[in-house]
Amino acid sequence: VSTFADVIRGAERLLYDEQYSVQVGNSDSDLSRELTLLERFEQQRIGGVLFAPIEDRAERVLKLRRRGIPVVIVDRAGTGTDYCSVGVDDLVGGRLAAEHLLDQGHHRLAFVGGPSTLAQVRDRRRGAELAVDQAGEGTSLLVVSTPTTSLEAGVSSAGEIAALPEAERPTAVFAANDLIAIGLLQGFTTAGLRVPDDMAIIGYDDIAFAAAAAVPLSSIRQPREDIGRKSAELLLAEMEAADAGLPHVHETIRFVPQLVARRSTHRRKPRKG
């Protein structure tokens, strides 16, 4: 279900075409495991690393680069000066999601997701906050933080939201990813709330299960294979420059996400103004 499967596929296709072998390491959101994997890669004298850090770990990137190992940050924010990075403009994505809910006539929104140590979660929430702030008086955004971005976190959060008094309860939820959104759908259904009649839901990533859910979920789509391919292109360029003893100018690439509207956010009534 991980969105990184498509990112890896995009990178592998390019690298295999260029006669490179690929090793894949999964940290499973464990910082100690992440460190162990990087140390193993370093010991194996690999040619380069595509790295999607759990948190902002610039020091680990710089350590690898000091050892002569090119590194490209994947699906994370970067400065464009110390290393290359490729990702999606999650601020724009968060704004798209919230604006879509507002356009469907919702005024009380919620953002569900976490942990806040993840830059993507912070940016998606901030984008939603900007959209709600711009909508002006009469709109609100309830933030429900979760320890993980899992389906179980969505189910639990749905219970919290459903327990609120009806006059205070949000009528639409923006989930930080599609797994949380699917959990929310299950949790709200169990609590007797209908989607989208009583509660609209939009997720993020547009994984295959989003369209196949009991109520097809609206989502923000990322060009995942393109992210993987571009990351691999930048890595190869840096590796080739290093082999030739030439300087390399680091790039920051940000793809623009797209709104995919489905039945889970079916229109209530037009927003005034």
Descriptive terms for the model:
273 residues; alpha/beta; four-stranded parallel β-sheet; 43% helix; elongated
Distance between the termini: 40 Å
Q: Which parts are unreliable, with pLDDT below 50 for 5 consecutive residues or more?
A: none
> What is the N-to-C order of secondary-structure elements (H for helix, E for strand)?
HHEHEEHEHEHEHEHEHEE
Question: What fraction of residues sit in β-strands?
Answer: 5-15%
Number of strands: 10
Principal-axis shape? elongated
Supply the helix-strand structural class: alpha/beta
Using the CA coordinates, give the radius of gyration. 20 Å
Number of helices: 9
Major beta sheet, specifics? 4 strands, parallel
Strand order of the largest sheet: 1-2-3-9
Please describe what this structure looks like.
The protein is α/β, with parallel strands linked by helices. 43% of the residues lie in helices and 14% in strands. It has a 4-stranded parallel beta sheet with strand order 1-2-3-9. It has a 4-stranded parallel beta sheet with strand order 5-4-6-7. Strand 4 (108-112), helix 5 (119-135) and strand 5 (140-144) form a beta-alpha-beta unit. It is elongated and about 65 Å long. The two termini are 40 Å apart.
Short description, anyone?
This protein has nine helices and ten strands. It has 273 residues and is α/β, with parallel strands linked by helices. It has a four-stranded parallel beta sheet with strand order 1-2-3-9. The protein has a four-stranded parallel beta sheet with strand order 5-4-6-7. A two-stranded antiparallel ribbon has the order 8-10.
